[in-house]
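One such given next:
>
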Amino acid sequence: MIDIRMIGKIFALLFLILILAAGGVLWFDFLNVIDARNVTGTVFNVLRGVPVVGRFVPAADARTQAQLGAGEFINLNDERFAVRMEALELRFAEHERNILDNENERRQLQQMADELAERQRSIDEQENSINDRRSDAEIRERAVEQNAVNLTNMPPENAVGILSEMDDQDVIDVLRKTDELATAAGSASIVPFWLSLMEPARAAEISRKMAGRPFSLN
C-alpha cells in the first residue's frame, strides 16, 4: 500500500529542489556568470525532448551574448579575461584623459604666464617712460634755474636782449623761476623791469600767457 505521506514528502522535496535551483540560476545571472534566459531555454528544451549538445562559447561579457544558442554556456576563463581587459581599457582611457587634461592645463598656465609677462613688460615700459619724462623735467628745471640766475646777474639790457631771442614758453619759464628765486631770497623781482625793456607787443603777449597758463615748465 502506497504511503500518501511519503509521496507528499517526495513532492515537497522536489518542489524545494526546484526553488533552490531557480534561486541559484537567478543568483548566477545576477553575478553575470550565466545568462538565465539561455539556461531556462535549455531546461525547457530538455523537458520537451529536444536534444541539447552543451558547449562552451567564449565571450567578452555574459550580458552581451544575446546570440547564444540553446545549450551554449559561458567560458568563465574567457569571462575573467574579458573583465580584466575591460578594466585595463578603462584605466588606459582614464590615463589618456588625464594626459589631455594635464596638457590643456599646462597650455592654459603657459598662456596666463605669457599674458602676465606681457603686462609686466607694458608696466615696465610705462614706468621707464615716466622716469624719462621726470628726468627730462628735472634737467629742464635745473637749466631754467641756471638761466634765471645768470640773467639776473647780468645788466638788464643784456638779459632782455637774450630773452628776446627765446621762445615765449622759455621766456615765461625763466621769468617765473626768477620770481620764485626772488621770493625765496626775500628780495624784489627784476621781472617787471625786464618786461618794461621789451618791445611793448612782446611784453604784452608774454604777460597775457603768464596770466592765462598754470605755473608749469611742461
